[in-house]
Amino acid sequence: MRKILLVDDNDNNRLTLELLLEEIENVEVFEAHDGEEAISMCQKENYDLIFMDIMMPRVDGFEATKAIKESGHKAMIIALSALDDEASKHKMMSLGAEDYLTKPVNAELFQMRVKNYLMIIDKRKKKVFDLEAINPFNKNVFNRSCNFRINSEEALAEFWDYWLNGTKNILDLSDCVRIIYGFGLWLLKRDKRFHIIAEENDEKLYITLFDISLIKKNVIRNLLLKHYPNAQYILNEGTLSFQLDKMVMQEKESIEISDEKKEILKKTHNNTIHASDYVNNTAINLMGKIDGLEEINNEIDEAILIFEDNPSTKTLYSVIENFEEYNKVLQQLDDFEHLAFAINTLMTFLSNITQEQFSPEKVKNLASMLLNLLHDLESWRQNVFILQNARDIHYLDASLLSSCIQMEAVFDDKALADEDEGELEFF
Prior knowledge:
- By secondary structure, the chain is an alpha/beta fold.
- It has 3 domains: 2-125, Response regulator (Rossmann fold); 146-245, Heat Shock Protein 90; 272-419, no CATH class.
- 49% of the residues lie in helices and 15% in strands.
- Strand 11 and strand 12 (262-263) form a beta hairpin.
């Protein structure tokens, strides 16, 4: 049963709409006498569709629409007004309304519109993802993508403007776009054309560069480490894909109404979470498994030392198996997907190392780096979950990701042209 809210200070107008809605199946109709009552009702109930009059006493349709949308309510709002002017229409649409109808309504048109609105609302609840997505991170993305054909510096500037000239609410977006711009400029100067495809879902943005094989893998990794150390990326033959997190805006738990007008608290997003708050509010039921990380840490430490003394794919696999156990716990902590991603990336890299790559120097460097990473993980466990003194539970994210990139560089081809990397020094 879909819930429809009619907001109008005129009794006859509400009655007219209610009679028209009787012809629509599976709907339940509710009424609000003005914007203030509509805000209060939306605070207590979720509605699928709201028809909002504009000219009302106390709180008008503009203010009510703004308040309801800013509270996080997901209803589709349709403006209904006797004001058939572009200024009112544009204002309502900018505040969150999705369509605009003028009164008096045409019965046949109104019922057809309502059926279409409800169909769209139903489809929104049944998201169908594009399983032919091109990014290597996630196939559950929307069925839309944005393709940038980079064949000139003007096209590259257009890519920059699209993402950074306005608010996109995506974490680390400027770092990602800046480094893509630098890679792109280097390719264009060598008459190389390429393209960039962006995909997304509710939580993530994925940006993939194609046809970049002119740039050596190790140059790419070194520059990412220097200019974008917390990048979540996958580098394949000729492609470089980034995964970026979207900001999640907090929904308010209540809406306060003053005597004069509706006051909406500003939405905030604070990515800093103190350890004690996190443990007490989120992780308390997982503390037993988190305590078990100490034993896993010791097992990894022993496995690394065995690998250093007797380097082989078999002894390295023992290291990987223990890291997998560590990662199983991390994956249960929703707020630590960056750490889980970093360790998962590390395990994939370690799994691809061959016996032929085990030179004494590389083995020594890798073992040392793994032990340092393990020390960082234990320090993170102590500061967040035991001592609970970390001011930000995410303090290790960037450091761990950087460590994993550095470990990959140990086994990568070092035969680089220094001038190539120098020419890619940008910003």
